[in-house]
Design brief:
The protein is 50% helix and 8% strand. By secondary structure, it is an alpha+beta fold. The strands form 3 sheets. Strands 2-1-6-5-7-8-9 form a 7-stranded mixed sheet. The protein has a two-stranded antiparallel ribbon with strand order 3-4. It comes from Hortaea werneckii EXF-2000. This is IQ domain-containing protein IQM6.
Length: 556
């Protein structure tokens, strides 16, 4: 009987293992199939990733394109700052600080060099301060022709800060101007020749501590001067559709109520944890304000809110208050009336102030005596309008033209109201404070006073110098009545002849002075008749001029 073949047994046995060659073939096929699957899945994943990446790229490009347009529009409107402007502002600030750095007199002369003029260097520092006070943000000058013309018109009547507040602006720490002025009086009464700020911080006045203005108060009360980027937190724009005021930083309606406070990031809700500027700069936490009975009450309740404590020494009228009876009338002047208005209106808590620059950008904040004032918004630069306002849920309710730092004339205030109307502001429920009527009366009184002084000067001049006044009146009449080039030329010749005669008379009067004749005698410039005296003056033992303009004895 034949034996079974082993290959036949393997084929008949379903559980028998294939041969090694067969296993390798099967493994190779499986690996190839797996590789195809992996490649297919990788291709599908890459396609999905490419689609997602393309979608993200398209979305990013769309966002960037819209943001660039949005940023450009905000920059043109003055609501944002580009990097180049930041660098320019930083360089300008550094140059200004270097020019106004307090230094001793010896150090200042040593830094000038041997051939430098100290007087010219001092005038350069004065020019730097004046340029700062007259500076203006012109980023909105790229508008249409009508906008540029309106801005140029506002610049004609732009108001510079009062000269008595320049100390506060020039000081690098911006210490409260009222405190600085008190120490400035002591500096003027002293015999020092040093710069005021060097004298106050490093010189003889370093240890000075006045009883009415303690040194601790001087060194802790600083006024916040906003940089160009910081003031964007206080910028406000007017919506032409509803006429309401909105914050430019977040688009929320403005409300000058007790529900808001000032902080390093601008006006924020009262329950916000953002620290105040005084808390950051001095480390002193603000005093807790008493809770108000109604957060959205009338204007009367808004007088008890955030802000610093009222300064009893701000805008004093000591002479008026100490006078009794009818003697008060002798102390009743325009300055005392202005101080009374400012004291009653701006020293209360929760007083909201505004400033409009020459491009009609409106900034609003909370006044804090010795911390935040009208000069804070534009770093002491000039303005077109400033005052006090009240706004309820975006609607303007009250306006007042009072500002102690700038004291703008009523013309600026009227132009500001007109600009609000042109911008579409809702003024249906806006009222003007009574201070406007008082200031209007004061301006009229001062105008009449100037006219009376002018008439009085002409009358007195006519009595003392009747011929001169008649000649001036005749020349003025010829200037007005002269028609054509002939009349104008004759009047110009008469004026020139009169000016020449006046100069010659002044020179003859000056030559008759003893000091002038003595100097001429010493210098030998007295003419032919005095040459012998001049030669004799150069003999041994005679008097000669020294290099300082004085007189010394020249010996043999």
């Amino acid at each position: 009987m034949d034996e079974p073949h082993p290959e036949a047994d393997k084929q008949s046995d379903p559980l028998a293992l294939p041969s090694p060659e067969k296993l390798k073939e099967i493994a190779a096929k499986q690996d190839a199939q797996a590789q195809k699957i992996r490649e297919r899945r990788a291709a599908q994943a890459h396609a999905r990733a490419s689609v997602a990446t393309e979608r993200r790229t398209n979305a990013a490009e769309l966002i960037q394109r819209n943001y660039r347009g949005y940023r450009q529009r905000r920059q043109m409107q003055g609501y944002a700052i580009d990097p180049s402007t930041r660098w320019l502002e930083a360089l300008k600030e550094a140059k200004y600080h270097c020019a106004t750095q307090p230094r001793s007199r010896a150090e200042h002369h040593a830094s000038l060099g041997p051939n430098a003029n100290p007087t010219l260097a001092r005038w350069k520092r004065v020019g730097a301060v004046v340029r700062r006070a007259d500076s203006d943000d012109t980023s909105a000058s790229n508008g249409d022709q009508q906008s540029r013309l309106k801005k140029a018109e506002r610049e004609k009547y732009a108001r510079r800060m009062g000269l008595e507040y320049f100390l506060e602006m020039v000081d690098h720490n911006h210490r409260y101007g009222s405190n600085l002025r008190r120490y400035h009086q002591e500096w003027k009464n002293s015999e020092t020749k040093e710069n005021f700020f060097y004298w106050l911080d490093y010189g003889e006045g370093k240890e000075l501590d006045l009883e009415d203005r303690p040194r601790s108060r001087l060194d802790t009360e600083f006024v916040r001067y906003l940089s160009r980027e910081e003031r964007q937190h206080y910028l406000v724009h007017i919506n032409k559709e509803d006429g309401l005021f909105y914050w430019a930083k977040d688009g929320r309606p403005v409300s000058t109520s007790t529900e808001f406070k000032d902080s390093i990031n601008g006006i924020v809700p009262a329950d916000d944890s953002t620290p105040t500027w005084r808390e950051v700069s001095t480390g002193q936490k603000p005093e807790p304000s008493p809770p108000s009975s109604s957060s959205s009450s009338d204007d009367s309740s808004s007088l008890h809110s955030t802000g610093s404590h009222p300064d009893p020494t701000e805008y004093p009228n000591t002479s008026l208050h100490t006078a009794k009876g009818l003697h008060k009338l002798h102390h009743l002047t325009t300055s005392t009336l202005m101080n009374h208005l400012l004291r009653t209106a701006t020293t209360k808590k929760n007083t909201w102030i505004f400033v409009a620059d020459t491009s009609f950008r409106l900034y609003i904040g909370i006044k804090q005596s010795g911390a935040f004032q009208h000069s804070s918004f534009l770093h002491g630069s000039r303005i077109s309008a400033a005052g006090i306002l009240k706004i309820k849920r975006g609607q303007l309710r009250k306006l007042s033209p009072l500002s102690g730092h700038y004291a703008p004339p009523l013309r600026n205030f009227r132009e500001f109201v007109r600009s609000l109307k042109e911008a579409g502001a809702d003024l249906s429920r806006c009222s003007i404070s009574r201070a406007y009527a008082v200031l209007l009366g004061l301006e009229g009184y001062l105008g009449v006073k100037r006219q009376v002084k002018s008439v009085e000067k002409r009358v007195i001049g006519g009595l003392i110098h009747p011929g001169e006044e008649k000649r001036k009146a005749k020349d003025d009449g010829e200037d007005r009545d002269g028609k054509g080039s002939r009349g104008g030329s004759l009047a110009a010749e008469r004026r020139q002849s009169r000016q020449t005669e006046e100069r010659e008379a002044q020179e003859r009067k000056r030559d008759r002075r003893w000091s002038v004749r003595f100097r001429k005698r010493l210098s030998g410039a007295g003419g032919d008749g005095r040459q012998a005296d001049a030669d004799a003056a150069l003999q041994p033992g005679s008097l000669v001029k020294d290099g300082q303009g004085g007189v010394e004895v020249k010996k043999a």
